[in-house]
Each structure stands twice: as structure tokens, then as C-alpha cells.
Amino acid sequence: MLTQTDGHPAGETTLRRSARAGQQYGVQAACTSATSGKTLSVEVRSGRPGASAERVATAEIPCDGTVTVNDLGTLPAEQIVVYLQGDQSDILSAYAIIAPTSSLPAGK
Fold first, then answer.
1. List of residues 6+ apart from 10 with CB closer than 8 A
2. 47: number of CA atoms within 13 Å, CB side?
3. DSSP code of 51?
4. pLDDT tens readout for residues 26-46
5. Which top-level group of life is the source organism from (predicted)?
6. CA neighbor of 84 nearest in space, from 61, 65, 101
7. Beta bridge partner(s), residue 95
8. Which of 12, 17, 33, 56 would you call most buried, defined as having the most Cβ atoms within 10 angstroms of its Cβ?
9. Contact 5, 11 (CB under 8 A)
């Protein structure tokens, strides 16, 4: 397991393995905020050294405490890095898990 600081205060990204070719992936995510109507963006990027910082997949999550599941499609067959982007100044908690679609619950 590799933990990498992602530039946000106390923010971390954990990489556990590379994506597999041809596999459909999804993201299960949730966040809570003191501000009503706030959202964060889950961004998936290549974790390969020297790779472009361009997003390979993205999903929006409402910060109302609801667990959401979104389809990401296929990802490059390499290590990936997951970032939670957006104004995090009043985010109380947040997480995002990238996994094969078949292992995630139905999306909301």
C-alpha cells in the first residue's frame, strides 16, 4: 500500500493496486459538510511516474452524508490515483473507493 499526500490539508490518497484491462470500475463515495448543497469531485488520474495530470475519470458527490455509487467505465491498466477536489474548507468527512463495478452496491 502506498499513501500519498495529495496537496489538501490532511488529504491522502491510498493506492493498493493497478487497474485491470477491460474491467468496468465504479466509485463509491460520500462526504459530509457544514454547508448545505456542497459537492466534491472525485477525480481519477494515472499513477504512472511521468504521466499527464489529466483526469481519466470523474464523478460528482453531494456532501449530504449520502453514499453514492457512480460508474467510471474502464480505466487504464496501470496504477491510478484518486483525488477529492473542490472547496474542502468545511468538509467534515469524505471518502472515495474505486472498485470493480460488480463488487459495488447499486448506485444512487
1. none
2. 20
3. -
4. 999 999 999 999 999 999 988
5. Bacteria
6. 61
7. 30
8. 33
9. yes
